[in-house]
Amino acid sequence: MTTQTSINTGSANLDVLSEGLIELLRRNDPEVASILADEADRQASTIELIASENHVSPAVMHAMGSWMTNKYAEGYPGKRYYSGCINYDRAEQLAIDRATELFDCKYANVQTHSGANANLAVYFALLDPGDTIMSVVLSDGGHLTHGSPVSISGKWLKPIHYPLIYDESRDDYGYIDYDAVEKLAIEHEPKILLCGYSAYSRVINFARFREIADMVGATLVADIAHIAGLCAAGAHPSPFPYSHIVTTTTHKTLRGPRGGLILTNDEELAKAINKAVFPGTQGGPLMHIITAKAVAFAEALKPEFKTYAAQIVANAKALADTLMNCGHHLLSNGTDNHLMLMDLRKFDTELTGKQAAIWLDDAGIIVNKNTVANDERSPFQTSGIRLGSPAVTTRGFKENEMRQVGAFIDRVLRSKGDEAVISAVHAEVREICAQFPLPH
Ligand SMILES: *Cc1c(COP(=O)(O)O)cnc(C)c1O
Fold it and tell me: Which residues line ligand 1 (CB under 6 A)?
Protein backbone atom coordinates (compact mmCIF):
# COMPACT_ATOMS: atom_id res chain seq x y z
CA MET A 1 0.00 0.00 0.00
CA THR A 2 1.46 3.37 -0.92
CA THR A 3 1.17 5.98 1.75
CA GLN A 4 -1.00 9.00 1.19
CA THR A 5 0.55 12.36 0.47
CA SER A 6 -1.41 14.41 2.95
CA ILE A 7 1.11 15.29 5.60
CA ASN A 8 -0.28 15.76 9.05
CA THR A 9 2.21 16.59 11.75
CA GLY A 10 -0.63 16.66 14.24
CA SER A 11 0.44 17.82 17.65
CA ALA A 12 4.11 18.22 16.73
CA ASN A 13 5.21 21.85 16.91
CA LEU A 14 7.82 21.79 14.19
CA ASP A 15 10.66 24.29 14.05
CA VAL A 16 11.01 26.28 10.83
CA LEU A 17 13.74 24.11 9.33
CA SER A 18 11.79 20.93 10.00
CA GLU A 19 8.72 22.44 8.37
CA GLY A 20 10.90 23.30 5.38
CA LEU A 21 12.22 19.74 5.23
CA ILE A 22 8.75 18.22 5.30
CA GLU A 23 7.67 20.64 2.59
CA LEU A 24 10.72 19.82 0.45
CA LEU A 25 10.12 16.10 0.79
CA ARG A 26 6.40 16.49 0.25
CA ARG A 27 7.21 17.80 -3.21
CA ASN A 28 9.80 15.23 -4.27
CA ASP A 29 9.41 12.24 -1.95
CA PRO A 30 5.95 12.21 -0.39
CA GLU A 31 6.34 8.69 0.98
CA VAL A 32 9.31 9.65 3.12
CA ALA A 33 7.66 12.98 3.98
CA SER A 34 4.72 11.12 5.43
CA ILE A 35 6.96 8.78 7.44
CA LEU A 36 8.83 11.73 8.96
CA ALA A 37 5.65 13.63 9.72
CA ASP A 38 4.10 10.58 11.35
CA GLU A 39 7.20 10.04 13.47
CA ALA A 40 7.24 13.68 14.62
CA ASP A 41 3.60 13.23 15.56
CA ARG A 42 4.26 9.93 17.35
CA GLN A 43 7.04 11.42 19.44
CA ALA A 44 4.95 14.48 20.27
CA SER A 45 1.89 12.51 21.31
CA THR A 46 3.41 9.70 23.39
CA ILE A 47 5.15 9.57 26.77
CA GLU A 48 8.68 8.33 26.08
CA LEU A 49 10.01 6.42 29.07
CA ILE A 50 12.73 4.41 27.34
CA ALA A 51 15.69 5.21 29.57
CA SER A 52 18.21 5.33 26.72
CA GLU A 53 16.26 7.78 24.58
CA ASN A 54 15.84 11.51 24.46
CA HIS A 55 14.57 14.37 22.27
CA VAL A 56 17.42 16.44 20.78
CA SER A 57 17.25 20.17 20.19
CA PRO A 58 16.57 21.47 16.68
CA ALA A 59 20.18 22.75 16.61
CA VAL A 60 21.58 19.26 17.24
CA MET A 61 19.11 17.71 14.82
CA HIS A 62 19.81 20.05 11.94
CA ALA A 63 23.59 19.97 12.42
CA MET A 64 23.24 16.25 11.59
CA GLY A 65 21.40 17.06 8.38
CA SER A 66 24.04 19.41 7.00
CA TRP A 67 26.80 19.66 4.35
CA MET A 68 29.14 18.07 6.87
CA THR A 69 27.88 14.68 5.69
CA ASN A 70 29.51 15.10 2.27
CA LYS A 71 33.17 14.68 3.11
CA TYR A 72 35.66 11.91 3.74
CA ALA A 73 37.85 13.03 6.63
CA GLU A 74 39.77 9.86 7.48
CA GLY A 75 42.45 10.66 10.04
CA TYR A 76 42.37 13.28 12.77
CA PRO A 77 42.40 17.12 12.79
CA GLY A 78 45.54 18.31 10.98
CA LYS A 79 46.37 14.76 9.82
CA ARG A 80 43.83 13.81 7.17
CA TYR A 81 44.14 11.53 4.18
CA TYR A 82 42.04 13.78 1.93
CA SER A 83 42.23 17.43 0.90
CA GLY A 84 39.55 19.97 1.69
CA CYS A 85 39.21 19.12 5.37
CA ILE A 86 39.79 22.60 6.78
CA ASN A 87 36.27 23.02 8.17
CA TYR A 88 36.13 19.40 9.32
CA ASP A 89 39.30 19.93 11.34
CA ARG A 90 37.65 22.94 12.98
CA ALA A 91 34.45 21.04 13.78
CA GLU A 92 36.22 17.98 15.17
CA GLN A 93 38.69 20.03 17.25
CA LEU A 94 35.77 22.00 18.67
CA ALA A 95 33.97 18.77 19.58
CA ILE A 96 37.15 17.45 21.25
CA ASP A 97 37.75 20.68 23.19
CA ARG A 98 34.17 20.85 24.37
CA ALA A 99 34.09 17.15 25.34
CA THR A 100 37.24 17.47 27.46
CA GLU A 101 35.90 20.62 29.10
CA LEU A 102 32.55 18.97 29.77
CA PHE A 103 34.03 15.87 31.40
CA ASP A 104 37.07 17.62 32.85
CA CYS A 105 39.66 15.37 31.24
CA LYS A 106 42.58 15.70 28.82
CA TYR A 107 41.86 13.57 25.76
CA ALA A 108 38.76 12.76 23.74
CA ASN A 109 38.08 10.67 20.66
CA VAL A 110 34.80 11.92 19.18
CA GLN A 111 34.80 9.66 16.11
CA THR A 112 33.21 6.45 17.34
CA HIS A 113 29.96 5.81 15.53
CA SER A 114 28.23 4.44 18.62
CA GLY A 115 28.72 3.26 22.17
CA ALA A 116 29.30 -0.29 20.94
CA ASN A 117 32.04 0.94 18.60
CA ALA A 118 33.64 2.89 21.44
CA ASN A 119 33.89 -0.27 23.52
CA LEU A 120 35.15 -2.32 20.59
CA ALA A 121 37.90 0.24 19.96
CA VAL A 122 38.96 0.15 23.63
CA TYR A 123 39.16 -3.65 23.52
CA PHE A 124 41.14 -3.50 20.29
CA ALA A 125 43.52 -0.93 21.82
CA LEU A 126 44.19 -2.89 25.01
CA LEU A 127 43.48 -6.57 24.56
CA ASP A 128 44.40 -9.68 22.65
CA PRO A 129 41.85 -12.36 21.74
CA GLY A 130 41.13 -14.56 24.75
CA ASP A 131 41.96 -11.88 27.35
CA THR A 132 39.77 -11.59 30.41
CA ILE A 133 37.37 -8.72 31.05
CA MET A 134 35.10 -8.33 34.06
CA SER A 135 31.60 -6.90 33.90
CA VAL A 136 27.94 -7.35 34.83
CA VAL A 137 26.04 -9.90 32.75
CA LEU A 138 23.43 -8.59 30.29
CA SER A 139 20.49 -10.10 32.18
CA ASP A 140 21.52 -8.24 35.36
CA GLY A 141 21.70 -4.87 33.61
CA GLY A 142 25.00 -5.06 31.74
CA HIS A 143 25.42 -4.39 28.02
CA LEU A 144 25.83 -6.71 25.02
CA THR A 145 29.30 -5.30 24.43
CA HIS A 146 30.39 -6.28 27.94
CA GLY A 147 30.97 -9.90 26.97
CA SER A 148 27.64 -11.29 25.81
CA PRO A 149 28.13 -14.53 23.84
CA VAL A 150 26.26 -13.05 20.85
CA SER A 151 28.66 -10.08 20.70
CA ILE A 152 32.23 -10.01 19.41
CA SER A 153 33.19 -9.07 22.98
CA GLY A 154 31.95 -12.43 24.26
CA LYS A 155 33.20 -14.45 21.30
CA TRP A 156 36.74 -13.10 21.20
CA LEU A 157 37.31 -12.24 24.86
CA LYS A 158 36.83 -14.10 28.10
CA PRO A 159 34.17 -12.38 30.19
CA ILE A 160 33.86 -12.95 33.93
CA HIS A 161 30.66 -11.49 35.36
CA TYR A 162 30.38 -10.04 38.84
CA PRO A 163 27.06 -10.26 40.68
CA LEU A 164 24.55 -7.90 42.20
CA ILE A 165 23.29 -8.43 45.73
CA TYR A 166 20.46 -10.88 45.16
CA ASP A 167 19.46 -11.30 48.81
CA GLU A 168 16.19 -9.43 49.21
CA SER A 169 16.45 -9.24 52.97
CA ARG A 170 19.47 -6.94 52.65
CA ASP A 171 19.19 -3.14 52.48
CA ASP A 172 21.51 -3.12 49.50
CA TYR A 173 19.45 -5.64 47.52
CA GLY A 174 19.95 -5.03 43.79
CA TYR A 175 23.18 -3.04 44.29
CA ILE A 176 26.56 -4.05 42.88
CA ASP A 177 28.23 -6.58 45.17
CA TYR A 178 31.57 -4.79 45.51
CA ASP A 179 33.07 -7.42 47.80
CA ALA A 180 32.31 -10.05 45.18
CA VAL A 181 33.89 -7.82 42.50
CA GLU A 182 37.07 -7.70 44.55
CA LYS A 183 37.13 -11.43 45.17
CA LEU A 184 36.52 -12.29 41.51
CA ALA A 185 39.10 -9.75 40.34
CA ILE A 186 41.77 -11.27 42.55
CA GLU A 187 40.82 -14.73 41.34
CA HIS A 188 40.66 -13.96 37.59
CA GLU A 189 43.02 -10.96 37.16
CA PRO A 190 41.11 -9.29 34.31
CA LYS A 191 42.96 -6.97 31.93
CA ILE A 192 39.92 -4.69 31.87
CA LEU A 193 37.52 -4.08 34.74
CA LEU A 194 34.30 -2.61 33.39
CA CYS A 195 31.80 -0.57 35.33
CA GLY A 196 28.79 1.27 33.89
CA TYR A 197 25.55 -0.41 32.86
CA SER A 198 22.37 -0.27 30.80
CA ALA A 199 19.87 -0.98 33.55
CA TYR A 200 21.35 -0.04 36.91
CA SER A 201 19.57 2.56 38.99
CA ARG A 202 22.13 3.26 41.70
CA VAL A 203 25.24 5.43 42.01
CA ILE A 204 28.41 3.71 40.81
CA ASN A 205 31.28 3.78 43.28
CA PHE A 206 34.10 4.55 40.85
CA ALA A 207 36.64 4.97 43.67
CA ARG A 208 36.01 1.44 44.93
CA PHE A 209 36.28 0.06 41.39
CA ARG A 210 39.63 1.82 40.94
CA GLU A 211 40.90 0.37 44.20
CA ILE A 212 40.01 -3.09 42.95
CA ALA A 213 41.50 -2.45 39.50
CA ASP A 214 44.76 -1.33 41.12
CA MET A 215 44.94 -4.47 43.27
CA VAL A 216 45.13 -6.64 40.15
CA GLY A 217 46.71 -4.26 37.62
CA ALA A 218 43.52 -3.97 35.54
CA THR A 219 42.56 -0.99 33.40
CA LEU A 220 39.36 0.51 34.77
CA VAL A 221 36.92 1.33 31.96
CA ALA A 222 33.76 3.20 32.96
CA ASP A 223 31.06 2.84 30.30
CA ILE A 224 28.82 5.76 31.24
CA ALA A 225 26.62 5.42 28.13
CA HIS A 226 23.47 5.89 30.19
CA ILE A 227 24.53 8.40 32.81
CA ALA A 228 26.90 10.62 30.77
CA GLY A 229 24.58 13.63 30.93
CA LEU A 230 24.21 13.20 34.68
CA CYS A 231 27.99 12.92 35.14
CA ALA A 232 28.64 15.97 32.97
CA ALA A 233 26.17 18.00 35.00
CA GLY A 234 27.14 16.81 38.46
CA ALA A 235 23.95 14.80 39.02
CA HIS A 236 26.04 11.62 39.32
CA PRO A 237 29.67 11.48 40.52
CA SER A 238 32.24 11.83 37.73
CA PRO A 239 34.06 8.69 36.55
CA PHE A 240 37.24 10.82 36.65
CA PRO A 241 39.81 10.82 38.19
CA TYR A 242 39.25 7.15 39.03
CA SER A 243 38.72 5.65 35.58
CA HIS A 244 41.62 5.08 33.21
CA ILE A 245 39.22 5.21 30.27
CA VAL A 246 35.63 6.39 29.93
CA THR A 247 33.39 5.30 27.07
CA THR A 248 29.93 6.63 26.41
CA THR A 249 27.18 7.21 23.92
CA THR A 250 26.25 10.80 23.12
CA HIS A 251 22.53 10.27 22.57
CA LYS A 252 21.14 9.10 25.91
CA THR A 253 21.11 11.49 28.90
CA LEU A 254 23.74 13.58 27.10
CA ARG A 255 21.04 14.48 24.54
CA GLY A 256 23.24 14.66 21.47
CA PRO A 257 23.24 12.88 18.12
CA ARG A 258 23.49 9.06 18.06
CA GLY A 259 27.17 8.36 18.55
CA GLY A 260 30.03 7.40 20.83
CA LEU A 261 32.83 9.10 22.72
CA ILE A 262 36.02 7.88 24.43
CA LEU A 263 37.78 9.90 27.13
CA THR A 264 41.00 9.55 29.09
CA ASN A 265 43.66 11.51 30.98
CA ASP A 266 46.48 9.23 29.88
CA GLU A 267 48.45 10.28 26.80
CA GLU A 268 49.62 6.77 25.92
CA LEU A 269 46.12 5.36 26.23
CA ALA A 270 44.78 8.26 24.15
CA LYS A 271 47.21 7.45 21.33
CA ALA A 272 46.34 3.76 21.41
CA ILE A 273 42.63 4.57 21.41
CA ASN A 274 42.90 6.92 18.43
CA LYS A 275 44.68 4.21 16.44
CA ALA A 276 42.15 1.61 17.50
CA VAL A 277 39.24 3.80 16.34
CA PHE A 278 40.84 4.72 13.03
CA PRO A 279 42.20 2.77 11.23
CA GLY A 280 41.63 -0.03 13.76
CA THR A 281 37.88 -0.47 13.74
CA GLN A 282 36.33 2.33 11.65
CA GLY A 283 36.69 4.06 8.32
CA GLY A 284 35.66 7.61 7.53
CA PRO A 285 34.26 9.54 10.48
CA LEU A 286 30.65 10.72 10.42
CA MET A 287 31.55 14.41 10.31
CA HIS A 288 27.94 15.59 10.35
CA ILE A 289 27.44 13.63 13.58
CA ILE A 290 30.71 14.94 15.04
CA THR A 291 29.52 18.47 14.23
CA ALA A 292 26.25 17.75 16.00
CA LYS A 293 28.23 16.35 18.96
CA ALA A 294 30.01 19.71 19.20
CA VAL A 295 26.62 21.44 19.29
CA ALA A 296 25.30 19.04 21.95
CA PHE A 297 28.43 19.42 24.12
CA ALA A 298 28.03 23.21 24.02
CA GLU A 299 24.41 22.78 25.13
CA ALA A 300 25.53 20.49 27.95
CA LEU A 301 28.09 23.08 29.09
CA LYS A 302 25.34 25.63 29.70
CA PRO A 303 23.97 26.15 33.23
CA GLU A 304 20.49 25.08 32.01
CA PHE A 305 21.82 21.58 31.44
CA LYS A 306 22.68 21.25 35.15
CA THR A 307 19.08 22.15 35.93
CA TYR A 308 17.92 19.61 33.35
CA ALA A 309 20.06 16.80 34.80
CA ALA A 310 18.95 17.53 38.36
CA GLN A 311 15.34 17.45 37.17
CA ILE A 312 15.90 14.09 35.43
CA VAL A 313 16.90 12.61 38.79
CA ALA A 314 14.08 14.32 40.70
CA ASN A 315 11.60 13.11 38.10
CA ALA A 316 12.83 9.52 38.22
CA LYS A 317 12.52 9.60 42.00
CA ALA A 318 8.96 10.98 41.82
CA LEU A 319 7.98 8.21 39.40
CA ALA A 320 9.69 5.54 41.52
CA ASP A 321 8.01 6.74 44.73
CA THR A 322 4.60 6.83 43.05
CA LEU A 323 4.95 3.30 41.72
CA MET A 324 6.16 1.92 45.04
CA ASN A 325 3.34 3.71 46.88
CA CYS A 326 0.93 1.96 44.51
CA GLY A 327 2.40 -1.37 45.60
CA HIS A 328 4.82 -2.02 42.74
CA HIS A 329 8.30 -3.42 43.20
CA LEU A 330 11.46 -1.79 41.93
CA LEU A 331 14.82 -3.50 41.84
CA SER A 332 16.95 -2.02 44.67
CA ASN A 333 13.76 -0.36 45.96
CA GLY A 334 14.24 2.89 44.10
CA THR A 335 16.66 4.95 42.05
CA ASP A 336 19.54 7.42 42.33
CA ASN A 337 19.66 8.24 38.63
CA HIS A 338 17.41 8.51 35.58
CA LEU A 339 16.02 4.97 35.46
CA MET A 340 14.36 2.21 37.40
CA LEU A 341 13.59 -1.45 36.84
CA MET A 342 10.09 -2.59 37.70
CA ASP A 343 10.09 -6.20 38.89
CA LEU A 344 6.68 -7.55 37.86
CA ARG A 345 7.12 -10.96 39.47
CA LYS A 346 5.87 -9.78 42.83
CA PHE A 347 2.98 -7.81 41.36
CA ASP A 348 1.57 -10.54 39.15
CA THR A 349 3.37 -13.83 38.62
CA GLU A 350 1.71 -14.31 35.21
CA LEU A 351 2.54 -10.88 33.82
CA THR A 352 5.62 -10.69 31.56
CA GLY A 353 7.54 -7.54 30.73
CA LYS A 354 6.62 -8.12 27.11
CA GLN A 355 2.89 -8.04 27.84
CA ALA A 356 3.17 -5.03 30.15
CA ALA A 357 5.09 -3.08 27.47
CA ILE A 358 2.40 -3.87 24.89
CA TRP A 359 -0.45 -2.66 27.12
CA LEU A 360 1.45 0.52 27.98
CA ASP A 361 2.27 1.12 24.32
CA ASP A 362 -1.45 0.89 23.56
CA ALA A 363 -1.96 3.63 26.14
CA GLY A 364 0.71 5.85 24.53
CA ILE A 365 3.37 5.12 27.16
CA ILE A 366 6.57 3.79 25.62
CA VAL A 367 8.75 1.52 27.78
CA ASN A 368 10.94 -1.50 27.15
CA LYS A 369 10.73 -4.99 28.56
CA ASN A 370 13.83 -5.83 30.57
CA THR A 371 15.17 -8.80 32.48
CA VAL A 372 15.55 -8.24 36.23
CA ALA A 373 18.10 -9.79 38.62
CA ASN A 374 17.92 -13.59 38.48
CA ASP A 375 15.21 -13.49 35.82
CA GLU A 376 13.98 -16.95 34.89
CA ARG A 377 12.27 -15.61 31.74
CA SER A 378 14.03 -15.09 28.40
CA PRO A 379 15.07 -11.65 27.14
CA PHE A 380 12.11 -11.86 24.73
CA GLN A 381 9.58 -12.29 27.56
CA THR A 382 11.31 -10.91 30.70
CA SER A 383 9.85 -10.29 34.15
CA GLY A 384 10.40 -6.57 34.21
CA ILE A 385 10.17 -3.25 32.46
CA ARG A 386 12.70 -0.43 32.45
CA LEU A 387 11.48 3.14 32.90
CA GLY A 388 13.47 6.35 32.51
CA SER A 389 12.93 10.08 32.82
CA PRO A 390 15.40 11.78 30.38
CA ALA A 391 13.04 12.26 27.42
CA VAL A 392 9.98 13.47 29.34
CA THR A 393 12.20 15.81 31.38
CA THR A 394 13.41 17.36 28.12
CA ARG A 395 9.85 18.27 27.20
CA GLY A 396 9.27 19.86 30.60
CA PHE A 397 7.67 17.22 32.79
CA LYS A 398 8.21 17.87 36.50
CA GLU A 399 7.44 15.81 39.62
CA ASN A 400 3.71 16.44 39.29
CA GLU A 401 3.51 15.02 35.78
CA MET A 402 5.71 12.08 36.85
CA ARG A 403 3.23 11.23 39.59
CA GLN A 404 0.47 11.25 36.96
CA VAL A 405 2.57 9.00 34.72
CA GLY A 406 3.07 6.61 37.64
CA ALA A 407 -0.69 6.52 38.20
CA PHE A 408 -1.27 5.82 34.48
CA ILE A 409 1.14 2.87 34.58
CA ASP A 410 -0.52 1.53 37.71
CA ARG A 411 -4.00 1.79 36.16
CA VAL A 412 -2.95 0.03 32.95
CA LEU A 413 -1.17 -2.84 34.70
CA ARG A 414 -3.87 -3.30 37.32
CA SER A 415 -6.54 -3.40 34.57
CA LYS A 416 -4.76 -6.44 33.07
CA GLY A 417 -5.06 -4.89 29.64
CA ASP A 418 -8.72 -3.84 29.86
CA GLU A 419 -9.46 -1.93 26.66
CA ALA A 420 -11.69 0.71 28.24
CA VAL A 421 -9.04 1.54 30.83
CA ILE A 422 -6.29 1.65 28.22
CA SER A 423 -8.21 3.98 25.96
CA ALA A 424 -9.15 6.26 28.88
CA VAL A 425 -5.49 6.47 29.92
CA HIS A 426 -4.47 7.05 26.29
CA ALA A 427 -6.76 10.07 26.09
CA GLU A 428 -5.16 11.54 29.21
CA VAL A 429 -1.68 10.80 27.85
CA ARG A 430 -2.49 12.76 24.69
CA GLU A 431 -3.75 15.66 26.79
CA ILE A 432 -0.57 15.90 28.87
CA CYS A 433 1.61 15.55 25.78
CA ALA A 434 -0.20 18.42 24.09
CA GLN A 435 0.78 20.66 27.01
CA PHE A 436 4.47 19.76 26.72
CA PRO A 437 5.69 20.11 23.13
CA LEU A 438 8.98 18.63 21.94
CA PRO A 439 11.97 20.99 21.64
CA HIS A 440 11.25 23.34 18.72
C1 LIG B 1 23.59 1.97 25.09
C2 LIG B 1 24.82 1.37 25.63
C3 LIG B 1 25.93 1.07 24.82
C4 LIG B 1 25.89 1.04 23.31
O5 LIG B 1 25.53 2.11 22.65
P6 LIG B 1 25.10 2.02 21.10
O7 LIG B 1 25.24 3.44 20.69
O8 LIG B 1 23.73 1.47 21.07
O9 LIG B 1 26.07 1.15 20.41
C10 LIG B 1 27.09 0.63 25.41
N11 LIG B 1 27.17 0.47 26.75
C12 LIG B 1 26.12 0.70 27.55
C13 LIG B 1 26.28 0.50 29.02
C14 LIG B 1 24.91 1.15 27.02
O15 LIG B 1 23.87 1.34 27.81
Answer: 52, 114-116, 143, 145, 196-198, 223, 225-226, 249
Q: Is 258 a catalytic residue?
A: yes
Domain that holds residue 164: 67-300
- pTM equals 0.96
Q: pLDDT digits over 20-57, tens only? A: 999 999 999 999 999 999 999 999 999 999 999 999 99
Determine the atom of ligand 1 nearest the C-alpha atom of 116. 9
Number of residues written out for the chain: 440
Q: Distance between CA atoms of 137 and 131, rounded to whole angstroms?
A: 17
Residue 190 above 80 pLDDT? yes
Q: How many domains does the chain have?
A: 2
Q: How far is the CA of 128 from the centre of ligand 1 (A)?
A: 22
* Residue 257 near residue 54, CB atoms below 8 Å: no
Same domain for 118 and 137, yes or no, is: yes
Q: Do 343 and 248 fall into the same domain? A: no
d(CA 347, CA 376) in angstroms, rounded, equals: 16
